[in-house]
């Protein structure tokens, strides 16, 4: 177990390094650079003196050879220093730590809601005896997966804020402002969890041991929740780990629709301004969350299914 | 990512438009009848973006200018009706006959919100520091280029001397870009000024700023040195102004309809009827400066032929572009300058839509209609790219329409979207055929920075008599004489079609009924000192 965790941590570092390196070279290869982005932002302005731009490039180190810049940036990133944002001049770490809590709160609430909604839906759909109810409930997740997130957000704002002033349409203030964005975020995620969990529950309920349990006189609800759900939840858990990436991508859209300050907005602004230091920090953060969540998911497997043994030698087999 | 978002936005708007049409009457609207101004209250204004900088000398986007403009006073102000320059912090001024030396006589008793006093020395420090601010301060740097010497003659008199005649400088002193900050603020670095904010002498002070989210302005108590254009003397009416950053246009519109905000910037055509139905007023004013135009790369082997450029101008139906894409009331271009620019000359007779004339011009130049509808001459095809930037939602639909219009004359154009970060590089490299853009500036000298070959010459014109005219207007102080020269310059640019003027940019705001006297200043941005709420 300990060797397993150490090995996974080493892998995580590799993933972080790869994400950092890849994003660095993609940004550098784009035409233009952050300094000309600054100069071009005011399109009404007189063209900025090229010598001045050159001086700025020098100040940020953009005039150095690319491999040297890379080593330089990586070296400082290892000590946790991602430099200053080119567009705003503020320290990147400050920008990220300011925005991070808002996004974490949003994604955590969204993920929690997604588990409740998705799990509840899957349980209800597989538990019910009525064919039509099952068909109806099972048709909801594909719908939830296919409607665009921004559309859901705009619809919610339209009805629950503009038409009926129950929730604010924008801002980060208070739990009330979190309701609509969290629901929006939970819709696609919850739908995917529901899809996988319902499928896996239906398969599990056909297993012989379920029949045995029922034959021994266990109640239907007991079998459903205690026996089937536990085994059926493994694939859903795997999906949830992968969904973290999607949650963060959706946060960009949702933070824009609901005018919330967060990492998504920071990312969007940084990408359009080619603000290399900020994008790099966000990419590393994103990779970090992804790696950590998936490691946690892997560590939870043996708790749910004692047959699974975490071993550094072979990839763990998930039985579904 | 940006691409997905913009698609998302468009699609979202369509849906929202449908939804709003169904429930327009349900929105809350406060019907106001009061006409006596009231002191106090809060105005909430929603804008679409935030550049992360609270220094007026460094911001260039309307959404940021709206808030930071209220923090500083300028030496002069400009009358939006007449274009005339009038006193603000300077009670009077003298300009030398050669338009090289400007002497300002400052008003007494002006203090910054940190308690320090406005002196000639502070003004000198401001104008010396501004060009050192770097890439973001392009506007201020441009206004002050060629400055030779700034002297504080006595505590109330400051003189700015230029190496070259520079008539535009007087109007420049009325802009937000040369708004005066305190002596202490001039000593900060460009980044500190952005993030920590500056100290101004304006009618409002910055109480709180959260990047990408909001800016809260508080009334400056004891303010007594407003612009001579303002109706109210002394302090502002409003206690507080909150600027909220709401990036999604549909959310801005809905928030205004439902009363969650009091005013929004930049109303698009699609949202007008829903807002009007909710009792919102939609004040509008054309931005002065160079209209939206297709600027030709005049060094291009095909585009350097004036007849080709003129044919492009004749083949564009400007009225159709204005009526289909832009907000209601937008005027097609009637000169290279918008009609709100001082010195504007009406050249509508020379900017007509005449497809037959366009075809005849091209025929005469040897461009024959090809098999696929695109004209050819020898082995060449009449085919161009139009480079454009995603800085305005009207750009793409305008250009798609123009693309169809030009096709009817046998001219094929391909649209090429660029990131704004590439704008400066693209102009400098000359790697473009036509560029779509506009420039806001309430002084005709903007023609010189765009079309004089003596300056950066972004459109690669050859030296001509236009250079002489543009240089001469920069050295002419007498308004009537300058106007004449500016008219000649506009006539030349339109006749030679160095650029093809298409449509004016009109700024349209959405303002709730409870808000009064939310006025446009000369550059079609807002002035909030006289604004009051019920």
From TrEMBL, chain A:
It is a multi-pass membrane protein. Gene3D superfamilies: MetI-like. This is Peptide/nickel transport system permease protein. Coiled coil: none annotated. Belongs to the binding-protein-dependent transport system permease family. Pfam families: BPD_transp_1, BPD_transp_1_N. Residues 100-301 form the ABC transmembrane type-1 domain. The chain crosses the membrane at residues 12-30, 104-124, 136-158, 178-198, 234-258, 278-304. InterPro entries: BPD_transp_1_N, MetI-like, MetI-like_sf. Keywords: Cell membrane, Membrane, Transmembrane, Transmembrane helix, Transport. Its main location: membrane.
TrEMBL record, chain B:
This is Peptide/nickel transport system substrate-binding protein. Keywords: Signal. Residues 84-445 form the Solute-binding protein family domain. It comes from the Bacteria. CDD domains: PBP2_NikA_DppA_OppA_like_15. InterPro entries: Peptide/Ni-bd, SBP_5, SBP_5_dom. SUPFAM superfamilies: Periplasmic binding protein-like II. It comes from Kineosporia succinea. Pfam families: SBP_bac_5 (PF00496). Gene3D superfamilies: Dipeptide-binding Protein, Domain 3, Periplasmic binding protein-like II.
């Amino acid at each position: 177990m300990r060797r397993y965790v150490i090995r996974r941590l080493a892998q995580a570092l590799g993933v972080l390094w790869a994400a950092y390196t890849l994003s660095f070279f993609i940004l550098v290869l784009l035409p233009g650079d952050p300094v000309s982005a600054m100069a071009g932002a005011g399109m009404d302005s007189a063209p900025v003196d090229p010598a001045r731009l050159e001086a700025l490039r020098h100040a940020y180190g953009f005039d150095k050879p690319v491999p040297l810049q890379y080593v330089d940036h990586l070296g400082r990133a290892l000590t946790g220093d991602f430099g200053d944002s080119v567009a705003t001049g503020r320290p990147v770490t400050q920008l990220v730590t300011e925005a991070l809590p808002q996004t974490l709160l949003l994604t955590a609430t969204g993920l929690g809601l997604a588990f409740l909604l998705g799990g509840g839906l899957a349980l209800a759909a597989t538990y019910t005896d009525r064919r039509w109810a099952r068909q109806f409930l099972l048709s909801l997740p594909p719908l939830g997966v296919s409607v665009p997130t921004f559309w859901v957000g705009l619809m919610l704002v339209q009805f629950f804020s503009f038409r009926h002033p129950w929730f604010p349409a924008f801002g980060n203030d208070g739990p009330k402002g979190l309701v609509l964005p969290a629901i929006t975020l939970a819709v696609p995620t919850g739908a995917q969890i529901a899809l996988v969990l319902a499928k896996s529950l239906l398969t599990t309920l056909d297993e012989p041991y379920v029949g045995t349990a029922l034959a021994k006189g266990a109640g239907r609800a007991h079998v459903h929740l205690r026996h089937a759900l536990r085994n059926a939840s493994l694939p859903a858990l795997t999906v949830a780990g992968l969904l973290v990436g999607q949650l963060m991508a959706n946060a960009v859209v949702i933070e824009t629709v609901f005018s919330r300050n967060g990492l998504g907005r920071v990312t969007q602004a940084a990408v359009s301004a080619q603000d290399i230091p900020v994008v790099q920090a966000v990419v590393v953060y994103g990779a970090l969350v992804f790696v950590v969540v998936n490691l946690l998911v892997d560590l939870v497997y043996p708790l749910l299914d004692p047959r699974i043994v975490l071993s550094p030698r072979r990839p763990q087999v998930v039985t579904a | 990512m940006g691409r997905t978002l913009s698609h998302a936005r468009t699609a979202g708007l369509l849906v929202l438009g449908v939804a709003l049409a169904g429930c327009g009457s349900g929105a809350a609207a406060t019907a106001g009848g009061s006409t006596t101004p009231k002191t106090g209250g809060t105005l909430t204004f929603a804008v679409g973006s935030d550049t992360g900088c609270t220094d007026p000398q460094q911001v260039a986007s309307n959404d940021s200018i709206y808030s930071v403009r209220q923090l500083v006073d300028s030496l002069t102000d400009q009358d939006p009706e007449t274009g005339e320059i009038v006193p603000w912090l300077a009670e009077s001024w003298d300009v030398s006959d050669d338009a090289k030396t400007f002497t300002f006589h400052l008003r007494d008793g002006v203090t910054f919100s940190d308690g320090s006093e406005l002196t000639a020395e502070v003004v000198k420090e401001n104008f010396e520091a501004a060009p050192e601010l770097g890439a973001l301060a392009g506007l201020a740097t441009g206004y002050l280029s060629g400055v030779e010497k700034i002297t504080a003659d006595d505590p109330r008199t400051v003189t700015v001397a230029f190496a070259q005649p520079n008539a535009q400088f007087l109007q420049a002193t009325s802009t937000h870009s040369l708004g005066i900050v305190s002596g202490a603020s001039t000593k900060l670095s460009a980044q500190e000024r952005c993030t920590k904010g500056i100290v101004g002498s304006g009618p409002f002070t910055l109480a709180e700023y959260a990047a990408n989210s909001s800016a809260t302005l508080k009334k400056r108590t004891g303010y007594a040195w407003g612009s001579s254009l303002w109706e109210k003397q002394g302090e502002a009416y409003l206690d507080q102004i909150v600027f909220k950053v709401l990036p999604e246009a549909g959310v801005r519109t809905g928030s205004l309809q439902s009363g969650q905000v009091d005013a929004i910037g930049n109303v698009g055509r699609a949202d007008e009827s829903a807002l009007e139905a909710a009792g919102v007023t939609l004040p509008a004013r054309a931005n002065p400066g160079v209209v939206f135009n297709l600027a030709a790369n005049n060094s291009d082997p095909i585009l350097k032929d004036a007849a080709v450029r003129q044919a492009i101008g004749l083949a564009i139906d400007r009225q159709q572009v204005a009526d289909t894409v832009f907000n209601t009331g937008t005027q097609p271009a009637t000169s290279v300058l918008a009609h709100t620019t001082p010195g504007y000359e009406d050249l509508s007779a020379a900017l007509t839509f005449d497809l037959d004339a366009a075809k005849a011009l091209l025929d005469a130049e040897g461009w024959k209609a090809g098999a696929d509808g695109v004209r050819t001459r020898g082995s060449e095809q009449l085919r161009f790219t139009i480079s454009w930037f995603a800085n305005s939602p009207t750009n793409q639909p305008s250009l798609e329409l123009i693309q169809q219009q030009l096709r009817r004359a046998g001219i094929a154009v391909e649209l090429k979207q660029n990131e704004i970060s590439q704008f400066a590089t693209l102009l400098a490299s000359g790697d473009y055929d036509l560029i779509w853009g506009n420039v806001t500036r309430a002084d005709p000298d903007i023609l010189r920075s765009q079309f004089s070959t003596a300056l950066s010459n972004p459109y690669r014109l050859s030296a001509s008599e236009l250079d002489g005219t543009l240089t001469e207007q920069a050295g002419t102080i007498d308004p009537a004489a300058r106007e004449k020269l500016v008219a000649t310059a506009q006539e030349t640019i339109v006749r030679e079609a160095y650029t093809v003027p298409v449509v004016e940019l009109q700024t349209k705001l959405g303002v709730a009924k409870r808000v009064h006297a939310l006025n446009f200043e000369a550059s079609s941005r807002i002035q909030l000192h006289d604004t009051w709420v019920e």
